[in-house]
Amino acid sequence: MYIELFKALVLGIVEGITEWLPISSTGHMILVEEFIKFNASEAFMEMFRVVIQLGAIMAVVLLYFHKLNPFAPSKTSKQKRDTMDMWFKVVVGVLPAGILGTLFDDWFDEHFYNYVTVAVTLIIYGILFIIIENRNKGKTAKINNFKDLSYMTALGVGLFQVLSLIPGTSRSGATILGAIILGTSRNIAAEYSFFLSIPVMFGASALKLLKFGLNFTGLELAILLTGMIVAFVVSVVAIRFLIKYIKNNDFKAFGWYRIILGILVLGYFILVG
């Protein structure tokens, strides 16, 4: 039992770091799972890979609770309205991926959850990060707060989020990249990406749990809870790091990392294949 919990701890660390940095949690999970294999069914693992994200999302809720809470007593009436307006923009941004993800969740898993897709998308989006950051060098962002973020721009970022239905793209990577292209600052791009993840991850986790059912064995429940708790703690650190990092740095380092990881994933599976 203890070795299985240790494996869950490792995957929780991987999830907590890679969920928020634009480097693809799925890509890392596929690679790590080659070396760490649970004594569990594939149905459980399919559910685990998604539901472990609930731990990560609770880190966003904790760190941004005041900003996200439209009923905070310390907020003025205007601030409460602004918070509700921000939530409406989150809902608009979630709709495209939410609808398509609900309709085609199994289809995407069946056709795209493989190392070739993950490696290729890691490399492609890594190159795009570098190109877009070079193009935007010296430019001033048009959108520096959520008031300036229009509903059309929110929908545009939501359409970019649809790309993340393909494993290896990185949900945070797609939304941050899209938001920057549409004129937001890196800080707003990152925060909006975090907030979009709340309904997306809760919805995806609910779908996987309903599909799997609640008939966990004691070991399966322990594995899931361990992964979620570790992902939560590590996510708090990762989110704080990213927000601090982007104040003085661009995303090109993540682009290069994605390219290198994509090549390593391809090379590894070709050699062992």
Structure characterization notes:
- α4 (53-63) packs across α11 (218-245).
- With 273 residues, this protein is an all-alpha fold.
- The two termini are 30 Å apart.
- The chain has 12 helices and no strands.
- It is globular.
Q: Can you give keywords for this protein?
A:
273 residues; mainly alpha; 12 helices; 77% helix; 0% strand; globular
Could you list the spans in which at least 5 consecutive residues all have pLDDT below 50? none
Report the principal-axis shape. Answer: globular
Would you count the extended β strands for me? Answer: 0
Which percent range fits the helix content?
over 70%
Cα Rg: 18 Å
Query: CA-to-CA gap between the ends?
Result: 30 Å
Structural class per helix/strand content? mainly alpha
Percent of sequence in beta strands: under 5%
Query: Major beta sheet, specifics?
Result: none
Number of helices: 12
Q: H/E series, N to C?
A: HHHHHHHHHHHH
- Could you report the average pLDDT, rounded to the nearest whole number? 90
Which helices and strands occur, and which strands form pairs?
Layout: H1 2-18, H2 25-35, H3 42-51, H4 53-63, H5 65-68, H6 77-112, H7 115-136, H8 151-162, H9 171-181, H10 186-212, H11 218-245, H12 252-272
Helix pairs in contact: 1-2, 1-11, 2-7, 3-10, 4-10, 4-11, 6-8, 6-10, 7-9, 7-12, 8-9, 9-10
Characterize this entry briefly.
The chain has 273 residues and is mainly α. Helices cover 77% and strands 0% of the residues.
